[in-house]
């Protein structure tokens, strides 16, 4: 299973890192690996480059539009014949676990915001979500 972390990058930082994805990946990776005693420093950096997700808005949308099952207060399983996908919507990031490389929920999240940076720390994979969908439309 792939585990994706999705972050909304502020517009000014999106413009800076649009063509420097590796640099942004390394910044986020360093935040991900921070030790507890550096946590307040990490939060400052995160707040400088990222925007929070509108958790209530996304949860309401999912409740009305997508067939799913709540596994607990935070995690839902999306029903699909073609994939096993779980999603956890946090203010800081969205975590998507799936057995496919590009779960369907990513299309909805790309509509939600065009400045989403996706990171898979386990596979050292990172990309701009909107670039992924632009590339698939062209091909």
Describe this structure in words.
By secondary structure, the chain is an alpha+beta fold. The protein has a single domain (2-138), classed as 2-Layer Sandwich (TATA-Binding Protein). Helix content is 42%, strand content 26%. The chain contains 6 helices and 8 strands. A hairpin with a 6-residue loop joins strand 4 (75-78) and strand 5. The chain is globular. It starts with a strand and ends with a helix.
Can you lay out the helices and strands and say which pair or pack?
Layout: E1 2-9, H1 11-17, H2 21-32, H3 39-49, E2 50-51, H4 55-65, E3 68-70, E4 75-78, E5 85-89, E6 94-98, H5 105-112, E7 116-120, E8 125-128, H6 129-138
Record field, number of beta strands: 8
Identify the CATH class. Answer: Alpha Beta
What is the gyration radius calculated from CA atoms?
Answer: 15 Å
Low-confidence stretches: none
Q: Please tell me what the overall shape is.
A: globular
Q: Specify the oligomeric state.
A: single chain
What number of domains? Answer: 1
β-strand amount: 25-35%
| Helix coverage percent | 40-55%
């Amino acid at each position: 299973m792939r585990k994706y972390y999705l972050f909304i990058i502020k517009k000014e930082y999106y413009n800076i890192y649009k063509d420097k994805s590796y640099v942004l990946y390394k910044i986020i990776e360093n935040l991900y690996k921070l030790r507890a005693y550096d946590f307040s420093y990490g939060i400052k950096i995160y707040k400088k480059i990222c925007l929070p997700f509108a958790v209530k808005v996304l949860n309401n949308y999912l409740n009305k539009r997508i067939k799913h099952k709540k596994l607990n207060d935070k995690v839902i399983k999306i029903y699909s014949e073609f994939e096993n996908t779980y999603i956890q919507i946090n203010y800081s990031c969205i975590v998507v676990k799936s057995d496919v490389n590009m779960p369907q929920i990513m299309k909805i999240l790309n509509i939600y915001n065009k400045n989403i940076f996706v990171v898979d720390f386990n596979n050292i994979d990172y990309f701009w979500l909107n670039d992924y969908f632009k590339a698939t439309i062209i091909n």
